[in-house]
């Protein structure tokens, strides 16, 4: 399930970069504020339910409520900021919250089972961090490659304009600049 979320966030990040890089709209801010408020309300309700439970299940319930709140707030924040940095930071914070939840779940175990559980939780955290970093680097590399390709295509278009003279050449250069955003 965590991998599905990571893939969904990655897909959203890629889609957002394809549409517009780094533009925080007023609608996105309003959605962010609403999501934060909803997450706080859901957390408060979950905590109230947790208060009826005692012992380790209570601690697990509270940790689940906290992790859910972090996930909701971070996803909304990443969408609001709409930057690769924000999406990556969001994934890292969500992974840390999931790790804290896993550690609380491990506390209910004893002996080797507890040790294995903690090691598994740490391995899951390390994997999530590595995936977030790798995805960020991959997106940056694709973006850089796309920019390099467009620059090369622009140079070819400009070179083709050298076959013309006067107004025809000016028109050709203007068309190339317009087409390649220069």
Note the main attributes of this structure.
182 residues, mainly alpha, 6 helices, disordered N terminus
> Which structural category fits the helices and strands?
mainly alpha
Number of helices: 6
Tell me the overall shape: elongated
**Which series of helices and strands comes N to C?**
HHHHHH
Beta fraction? under 5%
In helices, the fraction of residues equals over 70%
Give the biggest sheet: none
Task: Give the SSE layout.
Elements: H1 2-19, H2 26-50, H3 56-81, H4 84-106, H5 111-161, H6 166-179
Helix pairs in contact: 1-5, 2-3, 3-4, 4-5, 5-6
Describe this structure in words.
This protein has 182 residues and is mainly α. It has one domain. 86% of the residues lie in helices and 0% in strands. The chain contains six helices and no strands. The protein has helices spanning 2-19, 26-50, 56-81, 84-106, 111-161, 166-179. Helix 1 (2-19) runs parallel beside helix 5 (111-161) and helix 5 runs antiparallel to helix 6. It is elongated, with a radius of gyration of 24 Å. Residues 1-10 and 12-22 have low confidence and may be disordered.
């Amino acid at each position: 399930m965590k991998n599905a979320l990571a893939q969904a966030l990655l897909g959203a990040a890629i889609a957002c970069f394809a549409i517009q890089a780094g533009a925080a709209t007023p609608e996105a801010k309003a959605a962010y504020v609403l999501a934060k408020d909803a997450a706080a309300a859901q957390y408060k309700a979950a905590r109230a339910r947790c208060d009826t439970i005692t012992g380790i299940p209570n601690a697990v319930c509270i940790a689940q409520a906290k992790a859910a709140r972090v996930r909701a707030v971070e996803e909304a924040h990443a969408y609001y900021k709409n930057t690769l940095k924000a999406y990556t930071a969001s994934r890292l914070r969500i992974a840390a919250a999931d790790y804290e939840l896993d550690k609380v779940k491990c506390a209910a175990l004893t002996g080797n089972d507890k040790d294995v559980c903690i090691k598994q939780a740490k391995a899951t955290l390390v994997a999530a961090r590595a995936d977030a970093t790798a995805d960020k680097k991959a997106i940056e590399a694709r973006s850089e490659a796309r920019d390099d390709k467009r620059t090369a295509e622009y140079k070819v278009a400009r070179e083709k304009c050298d076959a013309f003279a006067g107004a025809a050449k000016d028109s050709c250069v203007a068309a190339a600049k317009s087409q390649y955003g220069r």
